[in-house]
Amino acid sequence: MHLGVESLNRCMPMKISFSPVLIALALVQPLFAQTQTFDIATFVPPRGWSQAETNGVLILQDRKTIQGRVEFCQIYLFPSQPSNAAPTANFQAEWDAKVARQLGFTGRPSAQPETNADGWTSLTDHADVVNQGVPLRVILLTATGFGRYVSVV
Q: pLDDT, tens digit, for every residue of 24-80?
C-alpha cells in the first residue's frame, strides 16, 4: 500500500542537449524525497518534519510559529491489523477508538468508500474539536484490503 502525495512527472518536448540534465535531476531527486516503509505502508515523509516511533505507532510532526501563533501538525501511522470485516466497519471501529473516545467527539462520520487500482478501499473523514482549549482538526483515513486494514490520523 502506498500512502502520501507523489510528484507527477510531466513530459515536455526539449532539445536533446537537456537530456543529460534531466537524467541527472531524476537521479538526484530520490536523495531529497526518500520513500520510507512502516509495516505495510510506504510513504514519503514531509520535508523537515521530525519522526519517532512510540508504542509501535509512527509519529510524524511539525511545529512552527506564524505571526506569534504556534501551529502544529501530527500524523500518526498505526500498524496494520488483520480483518475480514467490511471497510466501513473497520473505519467505524477506528473512528470510535481513535477519534470519538480519545477526544470526546460525539458526531458521526460520513465517509464514503473509494477503491484504488491496487485493490485497497479507503475511507476518510474529519472532525473539528476543541481539546484543552486548542482547536483541532482530526482527519482519519482507514484503508482496507487483502485481509488487513491500516489507519492514519
A: 445 544 555 689 999 999 999 999 999 999 999 999 999 999 999 888 899 999 999
* Cα distances (angstroms) measured from residue 85 to each of 88, 105, 115, 119, 152: 8, 24, 15, 15, 18
DSSP per-residue letters across the chain = -B-S--PPP------GGGHHHHHHHHHHHHHHS--EEETTEEE-PPTT-EEEEETTEEEEEEEEEETTEEEEEEEEEPPPEE--S-HHHHHHHHHIIIIIHHHT--PPP----EE-TTS-EEEEEEEEEEETTEEEEEEEEEEEETTEEEEE-
Classify each residue of 120-137 as buried b or exposed e, where b means 16 or more C-beta atoms within 10 Å of its C-beta: bbbbbbebebeeeeeeee
Q: Is the pLDDT of residue 17 over 90?
A: no
- The model's pTM is 0.76
